[in-house]
Every structure is written in C-alpha cells, then in structure tokens.
Write a structure and sequence with these properties.
By secondary structure, the protein is an all-alpha fold. The protein has one domain. The protein contains 10 helices and no strands. The longest helix has 34 residues. The protein is globular, with a radius of gyration of 23 Å.
C-alpha cells in the first residue's frame, strides 16, 4: 500500500427505530413478563381470596337477598380492585424510578411515549384480569353457598369493574409519574376521596373511579338503559373513560422532560 493512502471504514447502516405500535408493544410485553411472577402477584391473589371469603359470608347471611351481593361488590369489591391497581400501578414506574433505572429504559427509541403507554396497557390488563377473577370467584362462592347468580346483572358488574380497573390504573400511574410517595398518596386518595368524600360530593366523585363504578355495578337490569337510571350509567361510564384518558395524557406529558425522579 502506497504511503499516504487512507483507510476508509465501510458505511454501516443503523437499524431504523421501531414504529410507535411496535415500541409500545415492546414495553408492554417486557412489563408483563416482569410483573407476572409469583412474588409480584401473591399480594393481589391474597386480597382476592379475602374478598371471596367475605363474599361467601355475605351470601350465607343474605341467602334471600341477591341484591346484598351486588352491594358488596360495588363497595368492598370495587375498593379491593382499587388496592390491586394501587400496588401494580404505582410500582409500574416507581420501582425503576426509585432505583435510578428508569433513565436507562428511556434510552430506547420512542421510549418517552412508548414506555409509559406500554406500561399502562400492561398494568391495566393485569388489573382487569384480577377484577374479572374477583367477580367470578365471588359469584362462584356465593353460588356454592346457595345464593343464585343474577345473570342479568352480571354484564353490568363486569363492565363496571373493568372500567374501574382501567381508571384506577391510569390514576395511580399518574400519581407515580408526578410524585415520589405515590403509594402513600394513592392510599390516602382511595380512603379519603374515593371511599369518603367522593361518595357524598358529586364534584369529587367525578375525580375518582369508585362512585362511578358503583353506579354501573349497582344498576338494576330491570330498568331501561335509556331511562333516567340508564343515563346515569352512560354518564358514569363516560366519566371513567374521560378520567382514564386525562390521567394517561398527564403521565405522557410528565415524560416530556427528564424521567420521574
């Protein structure tokens, strides 16, 4: 090789970043794999077991009043789903943020949007599965105690708890993105606003899922969905969807800058 010849490195084409859907699916899949482990899900399973035992007790003492089980699900059952969402929703971001690992995950392409959105979808799916498991287990336990299943009410119960799982998850994920003590704030919100003030104040009731979920779960299937009671159900469902969208939008907005500390 003659003196003065230059070495030229071959051009290496960088891989193109994944599309938005693929990036969201990647983060959702990774979070599902991390979350669906026994050491992560056993507290939620224990809580479901306790609620099922309580539901069986309610069914035994109220064998002639099927409405009692619906009331139980719309109060204690809904708040149990809120607790499950609190555990999974806050941990979805805080576990990595508190250990300083969230910034590393955000180095992936499109991660500023795909990470929070993917983790929301994965967490909401997990909480929804627990919500359906809770309702099915309570109904099965009540049936075993000789309380008939109110099949006409079951669709409203399932829709209500699934929308509740969605909105609770979005709310607690938003808390986790905004503040470090997200679990403490979420628990205080569940007790003071969702279970307390939200039940007596219509304005505060729109800022938290519990009252709206109770409206859907407690709907009397003998009434028309297009009557006054039915319009309340539609309004409650729309409020839950709107609350979920606002909380997810707030979480995405928080990820515009630095990762949550």
């Amino acid at each position: 090789m003659s003196r003065g010849a230059r070495f030229e490195l071959p051009e290496i084409a960088l891989p193109s970043p994944p599309g938005w859907v693929a990036a969201v699916a990647l983060h959702a899949t990774l979070h599902l794999r991390r979350s669906l482990r026994l050491r992560r899900i056993w507290p939620a399973l224990l809580l479901v077991g306790l609620v099922v035992a309580a539901g069986a007790g309610i069914a035994r003492v109220s064998a002639d009043e099927p409405r009692a089980l619906i009331t139980f699900l719309s109060t204690l059952g809904v708040r149990a789903i809120g607790l499950i969402a609190l555990g999974f929703g806050t941990r979805a971001l805080r576990a990595d943020a508190d250990h300083g690992a969230l910034s590393a995950f955000l180095l992936r392409p499109r991660a500023a949007v795909a990470l929070p959105l993917g983790r929301f979808l994965a967490t909401a799916f997990i909480v929804m599965c627990f919500a359906v498991l809770l309702v099915a287990s309570v109904q099965a336990a009540a049936f075993a105690v000789a309380l008939p299943i109110a099949w006409e009410r079951l669709p409203f119960v399932l829709v209500g708890v699934m929308l509740g799982a969605l909105s609770y998850t979005a709310l607690y994920l938003f808390f986790a993105a905004m503040v470090r003590p997200a679990a403490a704030l979420g628990l205080a919100w569940l007790v003071l606003v969702d279970l307390g003030l939200g039940s007596v104040s219509g304005v505060l009731g729109r800022l938290t899922p519990g009252p709206s979920v109770a409206t859907i779960v407690g709907f009397d299937a003998d009434l028309s969905l297009w009557g006054t009671a039915g319009l309340e159900v539609w309004f409650a469902a729309g409020g839950l969807v709107l609350l979920s969208c606002l909380c997810v939008a707030g979480t995405l907005w928080r990820f515009r800058g630095d990762a949550p500390a």
